[in-house]
Amino acid sequence: MPIKSYILHFEEGKKEIVLKELHNLQNCEVIPAQNQNVLVVVTATDTEELDNNIYNQILEIEGLKHLSLVSGFDTN
Amino acid sequence: MEQKIIDRRSFIKKMAALAAMTAAASMFPGIIFGYEQEAGIPKGGNIDWKKGPCRFCGVGCGILVGVENGKAVAVKGDPNSEVNKGLLCVKGYHQTICIQAKDRLTHALVKKNGSYVKTPIKEALDIVAKKMKQTIEKHGKDSVAMYTSGQSTIPEGYVASKFMKGAIGTNNLDCNARLCMASAVTGFLTSFGADEPMGCYEDIDYADYFVTWGNNMAEMHPVLFSRMLEQKNNRGAKIIDFATRTTRSSMASNKSILFEPQTDLAVANAICYEIINNGWVNKSFVEKHCRFSKGKIKMGYGLEDNYNFKDEPQSIDFESFKKFLKDYTPEKVSKYSKVSVKDIKYLANIYGNPNNKVVSFWCMGMNQHTRGTWMNNLVYNIHLLTGKISIPGNGPFSLTGQPSACGTAREVGTFTHKLPKGVVTEEKDRKLAAKIWKVPYERIPSKPTYHATEMFRAVDRGEIKFIWIQATNPLVSLPKTSRYRPALKKDSCFVVVSDVFPTPTSDVADVILPASWHIEKGGLYGNSERRTQYWKKMVEGPGDSMPDAWMFIEVAKRMGYGKLFPYTRENHVEEIYNEYRQFHVGPKHEMAPLDVLEKQSGVIWPYVNGKSTQWRFNAKYDPACKNGEDFHFYGNDDGKAVIWQRPFEPAPEMPDKDYPFWLNTGRVIEHWHTGSMTRRIPVLHKAMPHSYVELHPEDAKKYGIANGQKVKVSSRRGSCTLPASINERGLPTRGQVFVPFFDENMLINDVTLDAFCPISKEPDYKKCAVKIEKA
Ligand code: SF4
User: Fold this and answer.
1) How many whole angstroms from B719 Cα to the centroid of ligand 1?
2) In Å, how far is A29's CA from the nearest CA of chain B?
3) Can you name the CATH fold of B182-399+633-645?
4) pLDDT tens column, B453-470
5) Catalytic annotation on B180?
6) B661-774 adopts what CATH topology?
7) Ligand 1 center to residue B390 CA distance, Å?
8) Digit-coded pLDDT (tens) for A17-55
9) CA of B21 vs chain A CAs: smallest distance (Å)
10) Residue B763 carries which DSSP code?
């Protein structure tokens, strides 16, 4: 049951779009920074496969500049 | 069972989020997450937000602590603070978490037959007072010593000074600020006759260029660095990082220039050479406001016990200064500094161009230097020659590491040679102190005794037989702890440690006193820009914990000095500050009254006619200027600043065949100094759980060392084994290794050298010779 956290860098002016897309994803929590073009994203899924899926879905979001993994936990 | 799993998952999710926020905060100093500020706030709570300064670094950010039901439940940046305008760094956000650490010192511990026995605080204070008194009776006043801190509050430092110098009558008082900014003090005093920066943080809003001299501000002064980045992004201001190692600051700067350790002395002289050679000297400023001097050279490095040095300044003229600089042409200096001629000229051009506003920032790189005072003088030379000083956006700015290195160590003067105003060697200063303290002035000795390093050498030699160490952890932070740890363990010295948490220093104490953490007591701190900040007690401390000032007062009373300390437990902070203010009456250093400090998020001294003085020595802003000119350097009797002729001299220990690497030590953003607080904050500890040794990838390859592999770093004094860090956070130049000193399990100061600047007596933690091998 992997839990991962990421720093997501988005393009100037794309905060709202990125936030909307992320909120549409299941198993995904978002903590936006108030004064920088970055968000913290935490995903919590049941399997490695789902984890991989959500990772790929995030990568496809319009306006995303860069996604870096910060921590990963397996709660099994 | 299921509930447990859910709780565990939600806990881990929170940890994961915090880890990401910590990382983001190190990438973007000053970043704000709404979530983080609200974390831990109970729903529907009734939170009372109380104002104070951050407990950690010398930036002195204003914080608001959310208190509910007597507990600190949240921290946020104070939006009214001119320092941080609501921003905080990752340490600042998490600061109050440490007070709940399980191993918090809550009761006094007295060593009996080799083990610590929990003892009521009153009894422990009886023991301390009795032991101190007996030691004085048997061995004289100079057999007892006190070693305090730049984290002590202004009232704590003041009471320590009054107790040691005014009541007992010994100058055996020094503090850990000796290890971090003593060279800045002697630099200011020798150049301007008055300590502390002339400008303020608002300089950041006007400067076109920031030159950081050996100063990794992105990690050490993150909120100020974020203010600089804001100016870089908004106005196109430029940041030039001049350092011996590539750091996060270098990466975020417009330009990074690397130099060979110790050669900053030569490069600074080369900049002056270029300024003069290109006709960029601000002649009218120099003629009106400066004079030239030289001092002794080849002073040594203080490596031997009882080392003594006194400079002998001699006046020189501009022509001899110009002649002296001929040895420092960019071409000559480039050869040994490894800075290209082009880069030296580039730096000189930044300062030399009359249209540029330039601020120079520095901290440990220049101060922890065996020629630290000289290095400070040299950067002042550059600003004085060009007249770029005491003007908004133009100025030299030495930063401090501790929250009250300025307010307590420098202003109150918890150094052996200092008094709350002036120095012990001056009769008029002793007379003033004696008058305010109501003691005979003959009681205050006129000779300074031990500076920090020499104090611990004196413990080792058996001269000091009682030492009280307060709010500091010298057995992690002193250089060459391999000598001073066995010294403090000796039976010849009775050791008292007051602190909030156990540390390697409290481990060798005979009595451990439980101290209050900063929000559990009231106090005042003074930050790097001369800003005094006052806060009131916010929460109760646990068990028998007690404010340090009150411990001193209790011991002083037990030793028969009660009349000198007529303060009340409830209001001692305010009573002591009001007494202290009397030392600084007048427009050169007037301190703001408490009612003003209570309302505002800090006030910059001199506080004159209801206003902070933001730029000293400039008649437009500073009412103390009296010479009728634009500038008045009134710290010196002739009203002039001094341009010093200071040569390049090599470091005392350089890499050689047996020890082929330079060792540089320093800090990381997650941990504050020796880590006794931040290592007890889980999110910070998890983000940076242990120290490491940074290597250049080519050096690592040559020695067959992989990332994470254990490496033994050894000097002629000791060794330390740490995991290798290659191409991670920082990148040392080839032939250099870097180790953070926060980790008490990996004591790199067993390896460092206790050489110091002969003028300031500040040790050099940035340069000694080591070898490395796979462990
Ligand atoms: S540690 Fe320094 S920069 Fe960080 S919040 Fe505290 S005072 Fe500000």
Assistant:
1) 32
2) 9
3) Dimethylsulfoxide Reductase; domain 2 (3.40.228)
4) 999 999 999 999 999 999
5) yes
6) Barwin-like endoglucanases (2.40.40)
7) 25
8) 999 999 999 899 999 988 888 889 999 999 878 988 998
9) 7
10) B
